[in-house]
Amino acid sequence: METMRTSVIVFPGSNCDRDVMHAISASTGTMTDLVWHEHRTLPRDTGLVILPGGFSYGDYLRCGAMAAKSPIIDAVIKHASSGLPVLGICNGFQVLTEIGLLPGALLANTSLDFICDFCHVRVEREDTPFTGHYRKGEVLRIPIAHYEGRFYLPEEQLRTLEEEGLVVFRYCSPEGVTGEDFTPNGSPNGIAGIINRKGNVLGMMPHPERATESLLGSLDGAPLWGSVNSWIRGRLGE
Amino acid sequence: MRPDHRAAGLSDAEYGEIVRALGREPEHAELMILGVMWSEHCSYKSTRRLLSTLPTNGEAVVQGPGENAGIVDIGEGWGIAFKVESHNHPSAVAPYQGAATGVGGIIRDVLAMGARPVALLDGLCLGEKSCPEADALADGIVKGIAGYGNAVGVPTIGGKTLYDRCYNGNPLVNAMCLGLVPIDGIVSSRTARPGQLAVLIGSRTGRDGIAGAAFASSGLADDTRSSRPQVQIGDPFVEKLLVECCLEIHSKGLIVAMQDMGAAGITSSSSEIAAKSGTGIRIDADLVPLREEMETWEIALSESQERMLLIAEEGALEEIGSIADRWQLDWAVIGKVTDDGLFVMTKGGREVVSLPAEMVGGGCPPVQWPSCKPSAEAEGQERPSDPLDPGGTERCLFTILENPNLAERSRIYRQYDYMVQTNTVVPPGNSVSIFRVRENRSLVAVTMEVDPWKCSLDPFAGAAETFLKALRPLWVSGANHLGMTNCLNFPSPEDPGNHWILERSASGLAAVARDLACPVVSGNVSLYNENPSGKILPSPLVAVVGLQDCNNPPLRDRESIEAGSVFLVGDIKGTLGGSAFSRIITPGAEHKPGCYDPSKEKDFMKRALKTVRKEAASAGRAIAGGGLMTSLAKMCITADIGIGLDSTVLDTTPECLFGEWGPRAVYLVPERSTELFLSCWEGFPVRRIGEITPGGLTLEGHEMLPEETRAGKAGRKL
Description:
The structure holds 2 protein chains of 2 kinds.
Chain A: E1 5-10, H1 17-28, E2 31-36, E3 48-51, H2 73-81, E4 86-89, H3 91-99, E5 105-108, E6 115-123, E7 139-146, E8 148-152, H4 155-163, E9 167-172, E10 191-195, E11 201-204, H5 222-237
Helix pairs in contact in A: 1-5
Chain B: H1 12-22, H2 28-37, H3 40-43, H4 48-51, E1 61-63, E2 70-75, E3 78-86, H5 88-93, H6 95-111, E4 116-126, H7 132-152, E5 156-163, E6 172-182, E7 197-202, H8 212-215, H9 236-251, E8 257-260, H10 265-277, E9 280-284, H11 296-301, E10 307-312, H12 317-326, E11 331-338, E12 342-347, E13 350-356, H13 357-362, H14 390-402, H15 410-413, E14 424-426, E15 433-437, E16 442-450, H16 452-457, H17 459-477, E17 479-489, H18 496-515, E18 520-526, E19 530-531, E20 534-535, E21 539-548, E22 565-569, H19 580-584, H20 598-613, E23 619-622, H21 627-639, E24 642-645, H22 654-658, E25 665-669, H23 674-681, E26 686-693, E27 697-699, E28 702-703, H24 707-710
Parallel strand pairs in B: 4-5, 9-12, 17-18, 24-27
Antiparallel strand pairs in B: 1-2, 2-3, 3-6, 4-6, 7-10, 7-11, 8-10, 9-11, 12-13, 14-15, 15-16, 16-21, 17-21, 19-20, 22-25, 22-26, 23-25, 24-26, 27-28
């Protein structure tokens, strides 16, 4: 049986690359390659591409801006246009918006503090490659750790984004109620993660790799890895 | 023109010693170098003798003091390298950069052992929140730690923060790093051999932090702005690359010896390697990659951050270079290990510096400052206090919980990424911080303590209690201590009273290290923490590393259980000397401090460990700041449970409810485990003081934690 093979792109300053590798291995037993940003191609058979969290290029200039110009990015864009899944976590989400694979930008939290904490997000869609093992409306307990996590899109485009149902995760209370009070970074509509129209490029500020072991406080991120694994196996089986 | 030796920071006697040993007058650059290397910060001249009295040997010790960090054995061939280091003076001048570079420096110390940095902790002694200048310093310090630690990808898993007026202009920033290292892969600074090359990797050298070490060896000036050029600027991005690069080079077996470039930069790192290896070293200043035009002595002493010095064989150079290139780091061969025992620096082919390597690093004669017990030393008697009525107890508890020193700290630690590397099992905000080591499936526990109030009351007993306050929560959580590191933060040792306090504090630490077999594996001294408006209280900081019994999950200091008993182990009464109660509620009252009983502490340790091994309790908390009531209140608030206290067992004196000192702990025990729990503590004072209830903390039917007290204290549930 074919299984998922993941490429985690390592930029100078990435620091969640190994965490993602461990999480995927622990929860799905599949293989992960760490791919240096200077490469121009992805390993053969790459199913999932992940842009991990961290501070690529020190977050100097603008978060994700320099990483978006890395040699590997063309291969990532090609991978995305072939319909295969691309996931950007935290700094990786910022990189995806800089590349233009996702709309918008991530701005400083309204508190102007870095925030590291567990929070809750509600799953808004279960029909994506990343969320097939969740139920719509399910509440996940999952950590965030960022200074620039407040999603921004001009009002009109934000409305379109919502109308098209491209929000996949939304900050909420433990009971699933959304609102400003439950949005740690001031993101509009509690947006924590969005997907492209084609449904294969997901950007999210929360860290599923930090919620993949009960020892570390939550298992709620694990189904995400399982979802992509199932989706890729399904596609390979076609 | 040769400057006066005093301007270089050398005393007449020290200068005389230099001339005698060299048989000539030192050249300008040599004088500048010796001025820095013989400063208190680099030479430990005032404390070397004192530090030699600390016990450093123990079963788990793989590397004691003398290297960049100490190392303890955590089993299956793995070790934890750790050390704490102060960055007090820089943080007083430029809080963000001062604190940030403190974190960067301690990370490189651990890296220099060949270890991957896996955790950070910070001990912060900050000025009063009501003082705007102090509050601004505090904010900058926290932001600096966050800015550096988060970007470098090492989780900040805990620490200790306290507030006192004495730190208003003298904040203390003690950064600790722990690293994971395979014991057969430990790098030393003693292994250089003649003919090998000195390779500098990392940032270019600039004019920042010149003579910062000397600056840290005197009191702060009234106008700290004039000292700004002595503060270094950190770049966590380069540090992250440097960590990965050095670890990759090391993994290929290409490093013979390694040293970080902290205080006194190229001079200290290269002369130390030469002195410890019994070799000489010849550095060519023309080969050092520079950011700007610099004098040779400036190149020698620059404290530009994010640089490492590697000693390697010539044949390894190509591979080292290609790895460094890939990490986009500057690198250069800047010199060669020689066999003449000399630290030589050349510029344009001319020898500008030629000093015995041994003399540069270790040649400074120790200084014995006079020591005299200060007359103001409190000699008060512990007078029994009047019992408190329930209303009074509630008000006292409310006031104590309102105090910044007892408040929860999520406002600070939420700014730190404490989860990156995905090993943090017990995060900040708990009595103990615990992280997992994947490589040998073990759990490592860390605590940090500093208690200036107890130390100012009685430096021996206070320092001992500080150490024990770090040990007891480890035991209660189920961890065996392996070793400790410390930072001796004190004012000027030149004052006989200060010096006496410093000596007594060190004796207190040494006594506990010996009695409880917890050796000192590394440490740091920071003196002259004073400015024209005042000096700090004696502030020895202790951090202890322990290993969790792998067969049992760690016992937490909180648990949301629905039913069960609350037990107090240890004496019914604590002592009020130096306690939160005496400081906050009855300032001015004289209370004699307690003193510790080694056999009782050991007995407590064995029983606490047994309690975890037998899984006889659901939660446990060593009683510390604020005493029994504060510990219970924190359990109630953080786990959202209630406790009904039995007033027939407890007495209502402040000594019982708010006393500190000594081995005391509270445990939550489910009914089915009561007998088991009691058997663990049989022969030790143990009392059932209450039961778990649906809500509130009640004593004699009186609510001690009304909603308004609870509100805002809960912080974030983790």
